[in-house]
Amino acid sequence: MLIVLLGGLLAFTAGQMLTAHDEVLAVARDVAVGSTISADDLTTASVPADPSLRPIAAEQLSQIVGLVAQVPLSRGGLLTRAQVGAGTGLGTGELLVALPLQDGQFPARGLAPGQPILIVPTPGQTALTTDNGSEAPTARSIDAIVAEVGQTNPTTQVTVVDVRLPAADGPTVARLASTGNLAVVLLPEGR
Fold it and tell me: What is the pLDDT of residue 2?
């Protein structure tokens, strides 16, 4: 009887060791590259212990909140140190520009991180003219990617949208943003 009991205890212990689980951080919702990670972006997952996996332990949550996503994070994925960092998440030759937008300057359905957009210069209240009275040529439209969308300010009704774009286009888009003479067009994926 004692041998059977010891055998059962040994089998139970071996089973527990084989099915040991670790509490790790997982992604609760999609996070765009360059976005600051919040506690709401993360959840915990219980995964079988595996030396080939290197997810971040759940107890390190407070150390991860406030870091920047260095790659796009997809809902349901396990979080690793290589995916987060203190840097901007911007690639070489890329800038981040804030666009203060009002209703009518971007699609009514809103924008989301990762969406491709086209920033289109608009003439504003009065069209620009040249010295001879003809209409000045408008600047070209510029491709960008939505990085982050802020909350609409209830007083000013302005929504700040951060966009990632080539460094060469940054000053042009910043000038447009400062005047408000722009519109944002949502592009199809893969354009």
Answer: 59
**pLDDT > 70? residue 123:** yes
Residue 52 has a pLDDT of 82
Integer-rounded Cα radius of gyration of the chain: 25
DSSP collapsed to 3 states, 32-89? CCCCECCHHHEEEEEEECCCCCCECEHHHHHHHCCCEECCCECCCCECEHHHEECCCC
Instruction: Give SS3 for 10.
Output: helix
Task: Indicate whether 92 pLDDT > 60.
Answer: yes
Closest CA to 100 of 147, 169, 149, 138: 149
User: How far is the C-alpha of 54 from the C-alpha of 68, rounded, in Å?
Assistant: 19
Q: What pTM was computed for the model?
A: 0.61
